[in-house]
Amino acid sequence: MKHAFQTDDLFDPGLPLLPALAATQRKTAAYPTPLWSALPTDWPRIGGRELPLFGNAEQLPSLPGYDPVACRAIYVAACEGARELAFRIGIPLYKVGCCAPDRVDSRMLEHNCAGYGSRYLSGNELRHEPGWNAWFSSIIQFGNILPANGPVRREGRLLIVGLPPGLSGAEFDRQFDLHIRQGSIDLWSLTGEGRNHCAARGVNPELLRRFTRYPGGSDMRLSPAYELVAFNPRWASHAEALVRLVHHIILKHLCPETAPQRRHPALTRHPLAALRFDTPA
Q1: Which of 75, 158, 173, 199 has the fewest CB atoms nearer than 10 Å to its CB?
Q2: Would you place residue 61 in the very low, low, confident or very high pLDDT band (cuts 50, 70, 90)?
Q3: How far apart are CA 115 and CA 134, in angstroms?
Q4: By C-alpha distance, which of 158, 151, 109 is closest to 133?
């Protein structure tokens, strides 16, 4: 049974269109929910356009200090709300995150209880969509077999990462999240590319700026859903990008003197993200 989303007011046919995209919108108007958009849009990507990798997985066992002593689990989560939003904008959307291997089930429960990404701000009004309270881990598919001596192995629906000494789970998560956030649909919606894409689809960019509402003492706080990214675990190139990110983080830890330097984009918040709401929404 489909959810009745109350977001029709976010579809504005009067939004300005790029001339090159106007014909595409007329074509897609008859098919409002194609599988993926054929627009010539530069989607956001986890890790950015060109992650400056150095070395490869085969090097890791021979590098001094590589002897995994702890593990992290990478998951790619889906829910009906993210699927509906993906169809509206024509871009696959999943939540990519990591945690301890024995925490994945409880992490899904936490996302469900909080309704991760279920809220958005329409003007000054905080709105809520159904369909964001049944998150589950998706199968991650690869075109090639994972390197036997690499730090990543597949275990069910998860990628298990072996961490070398000195690289804590918290530090790995921090670096992993910074790379993942470069594929954030929230941050991309603030760019010219994102706004033009939304205009061509007839969708207000505010719909892509998702929030999660968490308890915050006597009131509630809004947290941007930066881990909702343009990603498809069924595409081998996307799955392999996750492995390349892991290789980059571990090699950077083991060989910091040869690691390429890169800047991560500022995590720009929606202007109203700092607001606290003490009434139900």
Answers
A1: 173
A2: low
A3: 8
A4: 109
What's the chain's Rg over C-alpha atoms?
A: 20
Segment (H or E) for 199: helix 192-201
Beta bridge partners of 163: 70
SS (H, E, C) 127-157: EECCCCCCCEECCCCCCCCCCCCCCEEEECC
Work out the end-to-end distance of the chain between its first and last CA atoms, rounded to an integer number of angstroms: 24
Structure pTM? 0.78
Question: Tokens at residue 106, please?
Answer: 């409880």
Identify the DSSP state of 36.
S
Reduced to 3 states (helix: H, G, I; strand: E, B; else coil), residue 71 is strand
- H/E element, 111: helix 104-114
Predicted confidence band of residue 276 (pLDDT cuts 50, 70, 90): very low
Surface-to-core class of residue 269, CB atoms within 10 Å of its CB (0-12 exposed, 13-18 middle, 19+ buried): middle
Answer yes or no: are the C-beta atoms of 184 and 242 closer than 8 Å.
no
Reported in sequence order, the residue ranges of the chain that DSSP labels E, i.e. its strands, are 70-78, 93-99, 119-122, 125-128, 136-137, 152-155, 158-163, 210-216, 219-224, 228-230, 276-277
Alpha carbon of 96 to those of 71, 111, 169, 226, 238: distances in Å?
17, 12, 16, 10, 11
Q: Is the pLDDT of residue 162 over 60?
A: yes
Residue type, 31: Y
